[in-house]
């Protein structure tokens, strides 16, 4: 069984590689790039980038991204075109925040 700590380390280590492979601009270490179209939503727990359940979302520019709590967990939705840093915390007692560089583009 993989420990939550190892899972978090692997997610943080592999996220920049997967972004580079997809042709995305490289993010600083520890920052996961996330690209959304305006109106599009992504379930963070389904991305494999955070230890779930994820809670306490914060964005530098809250006008760009909205948050929803669904049966599948925390959801980010692109609200307005632009780029902002957002973070979420694992409620599993880890206390770690996961940081995302969210880019919202027009559909």
From TrEMBL:
Keywords: Signal. It comes from the Bacteria. Residues 1-21 form the signal peptide. This is Uncharacterized protein. It comes from Anaeromyxobacter diazotrophicus.
């Amino acid at each position: 069984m993989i420990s939550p700590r190892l899972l978090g380390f692997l997610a943080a280590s592999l996220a920049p590689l997967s972004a580079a492979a997809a042709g995305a601009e490289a993010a600083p270490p520890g920052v996961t790039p996330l690209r959304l179209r305006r109106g599009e939503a992504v379930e963070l727990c389904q991305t494999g980038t955070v230890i779930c359940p994820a809670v306490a979302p914060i964005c530098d520019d809250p006008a760009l991204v909205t948050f929803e709590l669904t049966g599948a967990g925390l959801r980010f939705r692109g609200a307005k075109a632009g780029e902002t840093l957002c973070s979420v915390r694992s409620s599993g007692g880890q206390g770690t925040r996961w940081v995302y560089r969210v880019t919202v583009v027009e559909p």
